[in-house]
Structure formats: C-alpha cells, structure tokens
Amino acid sequence: MFTALVIKETDGKVTSSIARVEEESLPEGEVTIDAKYSTLNYKDGMVLNGIGRLVRSYPHIPGVDVSGIVRDSTDSRFSPGDEVVVGGYRFGETRWGGYSELVRVPADWVIKLPIGLTLFQAMAFGTAGFSAMMAIDALESHGLMPSDQEVLVTGAVGGVGSISVALLKALGYKVAASTGRPDEYEYLRQLGAGTIIERSELEAPATRPLESERWSGCIDNVGGSTLGRVLSQLSRGASIASVGLAGGASFSANVMPFLLRGVNILGIDSVSLGIDKRFQIWKRLAGTFPMELLDGMTDEVSLVDLERLGKEILEGKVKGRLVVNLRS
Ligand SMILES: NC(=O)c1ccc[n+]([C@@H]2O[C@H](COP(=O)([O-])OP(=O)(O)OC[C@H]3O[C@@H](n4cnc5c(N)ncnc54)[C@H](OP(=O)(O)O)[C@@H]3O)[C@@H](O)[C@H]2O)c1
Fold this sequence. Notes:
Blueprint lengths: L1 E9 L2 E9 L9 E9 L2 H7 L16 E9 L9 E5 L14 E4 L4 E3 L6 H23 L8 E4 L5 H12 L3 E6 L5 H7 L3 E4 H5 L11 E6 L3 H8 L2 E9 L13 H6 L2 E4 L7 H14 L9 E5 L3 H9 L6 E5 L3
Parallel strand pairs: 8-9, 8-11, 9-10, 11-12, 12-13, 14-15
Antiparallel strand pairs: 1-2, 3-4, 3-6, 3-15, 4-5, 5-7
Bound molecules: NADP nicotinamide-adenine-dinucleotide phosphate.
C-alpha cells in the first residue's frame, strides 16, 4: 500500500482525499519510482477542480510532475537508486501522476536528474521551469538575442512567469514584467525585471492595429486580450511565445503585425516534446538558472494543502513555485 491524493467525480463534481492505494492498482510501465517531491502547476489546479476535461477516468491520482528514486526497472537504461524526473506526456492527466508515494511510468518518459539539481530543486522548476526554458529556446530559434529592447513576461508573479524573468535576466536580456499584483513589484525586481507593467495596461484591447514597437519578444502566460494587445506592440520580426491561458483561452487580434512587421506567435507545447530535446531543455535550465534565487520563489507544502491551493492557483493567488513534499 502507498499514500496518494486521489480525486473522484460524483454528479460532475470532483473531490479529493488522501487515501491508501494498493500497489497492484498502479498502471503498467517499466519503471517504478519511490516519489519524493511533486509540485503544483496551473494545470494541476484545473485537474484538481475537474476543469477542462483533462481527466477522463476516475478515481485518478493527479500531479503532472514528480521527482524521486527508481525502485525497480525492467528497462536497462534505469537502475534502482537512480534519481529521476517525470513530466509531460499527459502524466497526471490521462495517466496516474505525481501526488503519490509510488509512481509507475513507461521508461521513455523518465529523465535522469540533470547534473547539479537536487530532487527538490527539480520540482521547484517542474513543468513551469521547463516551459519557461522551452519558451526562451523557441524565441531564440526565431532570432531573439540580447539587445537594448526589453523582453516582456506576462503573468510574471506566477510559476512560469517568475522563472522566465530570472532566466531571461541571467541570459543577458532586459526584462519587463507584467503583473496584476502591485505588492509584488519588489519581488519581480529582485528576480531581474527592469520595468514593471500593470496587468490592466495590456488587458485593454489595442485601439490601433499597430502600436509603437516596444518588445523584442514576449513570454505570454496569460493569453486572452493580453496576447492580442502584445502582438500589436512587438518589434519588427519579433515573436511571442504563447505558453498560457490564465487570462483566457480565446483572443482577437489584427493581422497587420504579421503583414507589416513579420511578427510570429510560437506555440509552446511542453507535454509532447520528445525525450532527447526534453533532456536538453532540462540541462540548459539547470545550467542557466541563478540558483541563489530559487529559495526566494519556492515554498514547500504537503499533499493535504493541495485541495485549498488547487483553487488558489486558478484565482491567480499563488506566488512563484510550490513544491509538494510527498513524505511530510
Ligand atoms: N504550454 C505549456 O506547455 C504550458 C506549460 C506550463 C504552464 N502552462 C500554462 O501557463 C500558465 C501559467 O502557468 P503557471 O503554472 O505559471 O500558473 P500560475 O503560477 O498561476 O501563474 C499564472 C499567472 O497569470 C496571472 N493571472 C492569473 N489570473 C489572471 C487573469 N485572470 N488575468 C490575467 N492574468 C492572470 C497571474 O500573474 P500576476 O499575478 O503576476 O498577474 C498568475 O500568477 C497557465 O495558463 C498554464 O496552464 C502551459
């Protein structure tokens, strides 16, 4: 038996509880992991609250990320004692996830812990950090490089946002951070933001198809009207990495920025990236992030806190990153 956070659906309502689960109920897979840490991402909040039909079968164990130690493996790439990370491939959505002391997954989903990271630090990054690094990688593949013009990060106090700000700064970029939380301006400055933009300024739809060229790139965690507005402010040839939808899934925009400035929207899909590229992104993240900033943006929580926090993250109330200690 092992302990896990289990969600059930009754009359369309999803509820969670901490339960003892039999090892035989784990799904098929080559690698069994003694899980140590997981984390709370925005998507976990959606799963915990039954939003977006991400989970099709209940009872379910959520948690889209996990780090831990291999207990046994029928795949020769892994041995007992290996420190590993799992995330992506709809782990925690279509498949039992990381809010669990014991996890079993296909070997192709498992990544050996990038050198230099502890199991805790790996979850302080989690899918949020991975996606931030992936977004920067995509922007740079489309020509972004450090210049006098700022890169904008929206939803900056959140998980992907906080890590994006610190990563961009560490890579030599000038960073502008957009937030709806005036109390956190100092937090964002400490992470590396040179300019703070009030969220409402970007939420208001553009009044002209093209505004002044303001950003050399953007990591957008908000979507909705903000995405349409930022498009009209991108500099010639610049790109926006569309990561999130915290402010809404649909947006309207004018085609002029595409036709007259050659700007791009780059879709970031952290879930289905292949394992080799996934390892490269983890390695770059571990090697680039200014680790002295990680503690200040990370809090440790327990499984019992997740019901409450799963609601709070959807309300935009979580700051930075939350690591779930699965053994506390
Ligand atoms: N594409 C991918 O592969 C991928 C991977 C990871 C995450 N995501 C998505 O990226 C987004 C961020 O994820 P996260 O885990 O970092 O979540 P998070 O910690 O909750 O951050 C989201 C941030 O968005 C802002 N926000 C919240 N509600 C808002 C609203 N109604 N209008 C405008 N801004 C709002 C808040 O920032 P401020 O308080 O600073 O304004 C909040 O901190 C989510 O939509 C998530 O689903 C996508």
